[in-house]
Amino acid sequence: MNELVYITRREHFSAAHRLFLPEFSDEENDRVFGKCSNPNWHGHNYILFVTIKGPVDPKTGLIIHLRQVSKLIEEKILRRIDHRNLNLEVDFLKGKVPTSENVAIGIWNELEQDVRNLGGILHCIRLEQSENNIVEYFGT
Ligand SMILES: [Zn+2]
Questions:
Q1: Whose CA is closest to 126, among 5, 9, 6?
Q2: Looking at the predicted structure, is the pLDDT value of residue 3 above 90?
C-alpha cells in the first residue's frame, strides 16, 4: 500500500491591486474593502503555498518532482502575476475583484489540470496577503 502524503511548494510574488466595485462610491468601497480600496492602488508581498497530495512512489520515495512543480508555478502563475496589477493585467482575474479569495481560486483553476498531468492531486492553495490575512482554497 502506498501512503498518501501532502507536499507543499512555497513561492512568493508582489502585485498591486485595488479592491472596489465600480457601482459603489469611494465611501462604500472603503466601508466594504477598507484600506485595500485606496483609489490610487497599492501593493502586497504575497506568499503562495501550493499543496499537492499523492501516494509515495515506492521506488523513488517521491510523490511528485518538486522541481517540475516549481517550474509549473513559475510558468503558469508567477510570470503572469508577479509585479503586475491584478485588476488590469492578469487574464485569469478579468472581471473579478482581486481579493485573496479570488486570487487563490484563480491560481487553483490555472494549476489543477497541470498538477494532475504531473501525477499529483492539487490539495490546497494557501495565499498569505500579509502575516495576518490568509486564505486557503481546497477546490469545489
Ligand atoms: Zn490590498
A1: 9
A2: no
